[in-house]
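Researcher: Hi, I'm a grad student and pretty new to this. My advisor asked me to get structures for two proteins we've been looking at. I'm not sure of the right format, so I'll just paste the first sequence and hope you can take it from there.
Model: That works fine. Here's the first sequence with its structure tokens right after it:
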Amino acid sequence: MFAAWSLITEDTVITIDDGDYEYLDNDLDENQKPADIFWGDVLDDEQEKEKNDSSGGNNAVQRRNCSTETVIIDKLLNGTGYNKYRLPLETGVDVAVEFWIQSITSINEITNDFEMEIYINEMWLDPALNFEHLNPCKDNLSLNHQRVRVKGPCVMDLSNFPMDVQTCYLIYESFNYNNQEVRMRWNTINPNPVYAVSEILLPDFILINITPTLRIEKYPAGMWDELHVNLTFERRCIWYFMQAYVPTYLTIFISWVSFSLGPRAIPARTMLGVNALLAMIFQFGNIMRNLPRVSYIKAIDIWMLVSMTFIFSSLIELAIVGSKVKNMESGQQPKKPYCKNIEGKESSPKGVCEFEKRFMFPVEGFELKWCRSRWRSNSWTPDRIDRLSSIIFPAFFACFNVIYWSWYSEYLF
């Protein structure tokens, strides 16, 4: 059973009573009534005559006529002068808007955009429609619902990558009407006019905040109301820790193993250092190929460049040790027979140093002469350089970690 309802368009009022639909509703089984069909039809004069004069069998066929809501509204408004594109009031109409975020499918750092599916709900009052006799319905409330897939821009700032927070946004506004005709507003009845139906989790990001705002923008044709939605995403950086930071730690630690191999294991130490440096470069390139080309330094850039500097410094230390070993080996040459080496120790202001004096013995009456005097210091031997490097390198790397994580911890937690 349907109650009577009416439409009023300008000076014309159209009223439909429940008697027009009663016979349609009673003759049909429940299984024959789809949920999306409005049962009943507007009967013209000929159908009304058939209703009164036809036999019961013919009535059963005629009563099964039904129409969708769109067809009924079109017939009701036919000839009334109602125009759905015309503003309900000359002073304009207020439209309340809600967004229901169904899903966010992707965020692309390369193209700086994101994709999402949302329900858009619009509500406004149309005085041309009269529902006063249908209490307790809301007065003249018109609804418009749409589910759309949209692509919006993101303002990507990768300075703190991979501990970064990104913001994406949407702008919703009327296409044809300025704010003198259509005033767009967020629905104030709902405290959250924009909300996610469920928790939004992406492989790289998590949605942490939604901020709806209203702005008024000036165009040549007038002032337009713009509904802005700012979506704040926090990066899920555990993947980058496992793929970048942890392998970097291991590579640097392996490069320090060369300090304990001894100063004469030059080939093995060289191979270890070069392989560690190549592994670091490969890791860095694997991460950077999935990021856009930007003109500023990122957090991951600082980490990788400093880590490669530590590995390169270990190769420099190896070159110094190898040079020391080569000098020591080249200094052990056979002495000429007329020179004699006298080794001893002598006190000096800088401590006790070993020295070597060479004398030339007199031959055929010549006087005794000095060949040369060579001082040899024992402070920077290859073994001592390796021992100091095994302490200095970890100490400096620990200081770098303290500074690095102290600076970026506010973005991480």
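Researcher: Oh nice, that was easy. Here's the second one.
Model: And its structure:
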Amino acid sequence: MNPADDPNEPVPFMQQLLDNPFLLLFLGVMIPMLLYIVWGVVDILSIPVAK
């Protein structure tokens, strides 16, 4: 038996994280949303003030 096939070996944290479809959905929605919000705020702040 290969030692890498031990059924009692704990599942790595990153594998547990990436096996969660709802977390991936949440991150896939939130990361672009936050980036677009930051991009929009920076764009608005870069507009010169009217005199």
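Researcher: Is there anything I should tell my advisor about the second?
Model: You could mention this: The chain has a mean pLDDT of 91.
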